[in-house]
């Protein structure tokens, strides 16, 4: 289903209402912290940091977590004092992707579901987005990075998009963006074989800006965010809008197309077998899928 704003021909990466508001950090105002259990959202000095905080489940993402991240992006866009968003995980794990049990029980049904709200939110987010990635970044843990402006990776980062291995197809417009960034044949290795690739390979193809020691990664992302937060917001937003303007409509169209297939395939035998096998800690049997 086409995004309603697309259908109306409205620019989704639009100039932001807070365009000309000067950013003056006020030491009198305490840093704002709002947290849910598994996603922490902290705003300070013009930077909203969204932290995956479900390490015992490898930061796999539930419906509730997608909703929290989608809401955090909406709030960060609306707040004139926020200039940059940073996503970060743990030093040993960025995210194991979608929570598989959650997907089995409540597969996303409509374009209004939290996962799609999050994907639309990050793809069309008008202000700069930075990611700090250490350890495994599986599925959406990798595909969300194609919508970030700057990505810093620990040298332990391992990126993978194992959708085929789960009986699924790509999401987050990765079927468009991965071949564009990596070239078709490397994309086929990543998306058809679902083979992981490490930080240095991600650096080589341009998915990450810099590879750093894992313990320094979040700090470097924050330092870069601080630099961006000191720049004029109007210039940041307009520059991002111009860099992305040829791409945003194809991206949202591809997301909608992928979303329809992904939603259907989630309910089919191959995915159900792959998910059951993961939950039961056994190898999947695709002989009948
Ligand atoms: N959904 C739900 N639970 C998950 C999960 C996911 N995507 N990934 C990990 N977990 C859970 C495990 O079930 C396990 O729970 P338990 O302690 O109750 O048994 C716990 O997190 C630890 O995971 P484990 O696999 O033992 O950790 P590991 O360090 O050996 O491996 C990963 C880490 C990320 C490589 C591995 O967990 C993995 O491959 N996860 C699935 C990734 C995936 O296919 N994502 C879906 C993309 S659409």
What would a concise description of this structure say?
It is built from 12 helices and 10 strands. It is of the alpha/beta class.
Outline the secondary-structure elements.
Elements: H1 4-7, E1 32-35, E2 39-44, E3 47-52, H2 63-78, E4 84-88, H3 100-105, H4 114-123, E5 129-133, E6 136-138, H5 140-143, E7 150-154, E8 158-160, H6 174-182, H7 184-191, E9 197-198, H8 199-205, E10 210-212, H9 214-229, H10 233-244, H11 248-266, H12 269-279
Parallel strand pairs: 3-4, 4-5, 5-7, 6-8, 7-10
Antiparallel strand pairs: 1-2, 2-3, 8-9
Helix pairs in contact: 2-4, 4-11, 6-7, 6-11
The protein binds coenzyme A.
Coenzyme A (COA) is lined by residues 57-58, 60, 96-101, 136, 138-139, 162, 166.
